[in-house]
Amino acid sequence: MADEKHRPRLLIVGASGFVGSRLALAARERFDVVCTGRRPPGEAGWVEIDITDAASVERAFEQARPRYVALLAAMSNIDRCEVERELAERVNVEGAVNVARACSRHGARLLFTSTDAVFDGTAGIYHEDDPPCPANFYGETKARAERAVADVLPSAVIVRLSLVLGTSAASGGNSYLEKVAGNLKAGNPIISPTYEVRNPIDVGTLCTLLTELLLEEGAAGIFHIGASDKISRYELARAIALRLGGDPALIVPQTEPVAGRAPRGRDDFLATTRLSQVCRTRVPTCQEVIERAVAMV
């Protein structure tokens, strides 16, 4: 671990979530970590923040005095965003702008996490410079947030993520992997779409890559993080079941979207071209991602 006195300060906005809680632990090797969220993980410090309130954001920055900021907080439930649009806009767009403006005022380097939902999944592969074409309101808010953050802070790193696999470092973890593992243990069927294709990433590798992007001062703009190949949610759930020693017959294929849900992209494969040019860590395959994630259970 680096000398504590000489580690730069990292403010993690959204540290009580799945990725944020893991980043708060992993980043302590390189940073003096300060968190916002419901429960500060590990030994990290904590400050209050409401990203929808510019004054609250400013107070948090004055208290934390960060050199780096990772903005992970978001309203990410796709179906909820479709219904509660005003709140989704406030959190995902206005909140991101408030944090970006504070970074600009305080000279802090910003990493902002976005999503593959900025694409509608019809192309089969998406590169960093492809224009957003979201299929749902959540994706619309994140696409607007990307543009707004880049306008306020051109030096910001914007990271689009697909499905992240692993377990939360915070209590009451509710990640995709934890849900699948819990249902397998209980003997419950797990309905999994055959038509939704993603390139997932394990949370451990993700945290390593986020740290590298933060510290690579010349890196700016959009980066995609995901596996080097892709897999359907159905195939993914079966692979997890097999590696956990569960019954793969519990994985039930779903061949068509469920009525009443917000639309999802079918094949949102994120090409990781720019990431491979900047980061030292190799982009893993889906098989490697699954093995690393399942080892956390």
Determine Rg (CA atoms, Å): 18 Å
What structural class do you assign from the helix and strand content? alpha/beta
Give the % helix: 25-40%
**DSSP strand count:** 13
What are the secondary-structure elements, in order, as H or E? EHEEHEHHEHEEHEEEHEEHEHH
Please give the alpha-carbon distance between the first and last residues: 26 Å
User: Could you please say which CATH topology applies here?
Assistant: Rossmann fold
Q: Counting H and I runs of at least 4 residues, what is the number of helices?
A: 10
CATH homologous superfamily title: NAD(P)-binding Rossmann-like Domain
Summed up, the domain count is 1
**Biggest pleated sheet:** 7 strands, parallel
